[in-house]
Amino acid sequence: MATAPIVEIDKVSFGYDAARPVLHGVSLRIEPGSVVGIMGQSGCGKTTLLRIIAGWLKASAGNTRVLGESVRDLDSDGIYALRRKMGMLFQFGALFTDMTVFDNVAFQMREHTDLPPDLVHDLVMMKLEAVGLRGVAQRMPSELSGGMARRVALARAVALDPRLMLYDEPFTGLDPISLGVIARLIRTLNDSLGQTSIVVSHDVEECFAIVDYVYFVSAGRIVAEGTPDELRRSAEPFVSQFVQGEPDGPIPFHYPAPGYQADLAAPAENA
Amino acid sequence: MFAALRQGLADLGGGATAKVRRLGFAARFFVAILLHSGTAFRRFGLTIREIYFAGVLSMVIILVSGLFVGMVLGLQGFETLQRYGSGDALGVLVALSLVRELGPVIAGLLFASRAGSAITAEIGLMKATEQIAAMEMMAVDPIARVVAPRFWAGVISMPLLAALFSALGIFGGYLVGVKLIGVDEGAFWSQMQASVDVRNDILNGVIKSVVFGVAVTWIAVFEGYDAPPTAEGVSGATTRTVVTSSLAILALDFVLTALMFTGGNAK
User: Fold this and answer.
1) Are B139 and A112 in contact (CB < 8 Å)?
2) Which residue from B81, B112, B107, B85 is spatially nearest to B94, judged by alpha carbons?
3) Within a 10 A sphere around the Cβ of A13, how many other Cβ atoms?
4) Is A56 an 8 Å CB contact of chain B?
5) Domains in chain A, please, with CATH?
6) A90 closest CB neighbour out of B126, B134, B141
7) What is the pLDDT of residues B21-55, one digit of tens each?
């Protein structure tokens, strides 16, 4: 018997207003226990898709089911109840700058549970140990490097062992060592905690190294999907351009503009 | 010509509509704060912490300003009163000026500049760095956890700061009037005691400072929460907090003074 998907998106469309459609009839399924990449160039709609899954944005058409719930039918209490089963790693960590590392990781435990302080302490130390940063528990976020802040944010995101983890550009701005550490942690935590993970990214190699399946988004549509190996071998022009990092192709190097000669000959109104 | 006129009218209408819409958002935000205030009182430690940042850290500027305003009142007041042979009434003049007007108004203006701007900048930066979004993602309501404690801290701090301002002002007036100029100490205090009424003067001053506290803190938290998540957006929101709060204090002061101290309520 087939297992129910953790996330099921069916013909979802979304636009911030009628003149700016972002997603057009996107459909995808994310199976339990998998790490799935949603990839595409900047501004293609992948973060918007993540925000629809998290119940942040309401799709203008189509259905989104997350952890068995139809997101568009939930009220704000229902959305909050759903989010307690999710964790999210933000692009730059989004640690609370007025709290220590320890308090950041303990935040959800204190807000949502009545655990005694001793147990909270032990759980926080276990989470920090999992990301290798037990030694910075009493530091402030401003005293951490970018990679360390991202790892603390990861420890905070998994504090209550969420069933679904959302990663929004987790590799952006990291040095190669930190990048490798974060990538390995995403895969390790997913497997050891029995989670399902969605990684939104445009970093091909790092993402391909840890994901089971990839959806490529371009101009608000799913244009390709498959395992990393399948996509590496793909002859699809968009996938090939993206994976090889070619400057020109289906996604043109030049943004649409009037004729070059006409622009050069035009009076310098904006100079 | 007509096209330009039409465009001008359209811009004017569009601007006015945007302002009214924003005012509507601010009103709904205010209602949301009141509805989500449970946490601010159930976990009063959160509010106490914000009282420290908004109130305690504003004390230096409030106390020093109060002292100097009182000293200036002592000098100017005595100069005017002695022309009419009423130099002994200096205590009354200083106390009534401070308790009815200058205490709430100047403390409110200083509070808007010191604490209001800090509240806006802090919430605006939390939004710009996705801390507010992270809180929402962790199923914690940021209005209950971040906004409401700051709002109530401002509302609680403002009357206390205004009272401290007035107290230090009266002490400043006493230093200049009694110790420096030589006004009779007994007359200074006894006339003040006889003329300052608890309900008409002190209570009305407290009401003013509470109203100013609500206005300033509401504006500060709204501007921070509504700030565009950019450096420029937070900077603009901080400036708007100070300007709008200051104008609101002065306008509300006129309305409250008209209601409290004129007509049948005149003392």
Assistant:
1) yes
2) B81
3) 15
4) yes
5) 7-232 (3.40.50.300)
6) B134
7) 999 999 999 999 999 999 889 999 999 999 999 99
